Amino acid sequence: MLLSVQRICTHALSHTKQQSMTTQEKDLQALHLLAPVSGKTMKLDSVPDPVFSEKLTGDGLAILAEGDEVLAPCDGEITLFFDTKHAFAITTPDGVQVLVHVGLDTIIMNGDGLTALKRSGEKVTAGTPIIKLDRPLLEKRNINMICPVLIVNYEKVREIQPIAAGESVTAGEDTVLQYAV
Fold first, then answer.
1. Number of structural domains, the chain?
2. Computed from CA positions of residues 103, 107, 112, 118, in that sequence, does the dihedral angle turn out positive or negative?
3. Are the C-beta atoms of residues 32 and 75 closer than 8 Å to each other?
4. Is 76 helix (H, G, I), strand (E, B) or coil?
5. 101 is annotated as an active-site residue
6. Which of 48, 58, 62, 109 is a good FRET partner for 41, with 20 to 30 A between their CA atoms?
7. Residue 121: left (phi > 0), alpha (psi -120 to 50), or beta?
8. CA 122 vs CA 77, 78, 86, 118: distances in Å
9. Could you tell me if 101 and 19 lie in one domain?
10. Does residue 17 sit in the same domain as residue 102?
């Protein structure tokens, strides 16, 4: 009888542990960023700007943008939107700050070629259009369209797993980074 009770307890404990692990795995799956732009992924250390390649502003990845729209990579509130429209940050419900920098040289455009569709203080969901790009104007001005996607306060996260470099991604559809808090 005692052996049967031990088996039942052990089975119940292992079943609970399996459910708990599944929940943890789901949590890691749920904490992800979608591609804010369509294009090819790059390792952050290959971005030709030390502010990003040396992770001075955060950790993540970059995407060489091919489309004309920049989307929210996650749910949250837009907590920073530069007047020049070259970058914005979203703070997720769990306090992670995600920065999307639209191109490397777009700041010199002083907002030309970039149309803000949202503004600071607005709540957004992953996939919401944030910026519309005037690709012909940006190309005419030879703007480098590498878009770093960063977790700024990466000390808040335990793990950051960007997708492999060289992958083609579609804005609002493909997960480009997973993280755990």
1. 2
2. positive
3. no
4. strand
5. yes
6. 109
7. left
8. 6, 6, 17, 7
9. no
10. no
What are the CA-CA distances from residue 113 to residues 70, 108, 175 (Å)? 13, 11, 27
Give which of 67, 80, 69 is closest to 150, Cα–Cα: 80
| The 69-71 sheet, strands edge to edge | 69-71, 129-133, 114-116
Phi, psi torsion values for 50, nearest 5 degrees: -60, -25
Strand 123-124 relative to strand 97-101, pairing: unpaired
For residue 125, how many other CB atoms are within 10 A of its CB? 10
Residue pLDDT, tens place only, 142-165: 999 999 999 999 889 988 999 999
Chain CA centroid to CA 8, Å: 44
Helix (H, G, I), strand (E, B) or coil at 77: strand
pLDDT tens column, 11-61: 333 333 334 434 544 444 458 999 999 999 999 999 999 999 999 999 999
CATH of the domain at 156: 2.70.70.10
Q: Is residue 62 domain-shared with residue 109, that is, in the same domain?
A: yes
Cα–Cα distance measured from residue 172 to residue 38, given in angstroms and rounded to the nearest whole number = 8
12 and 62 in a common domain? no
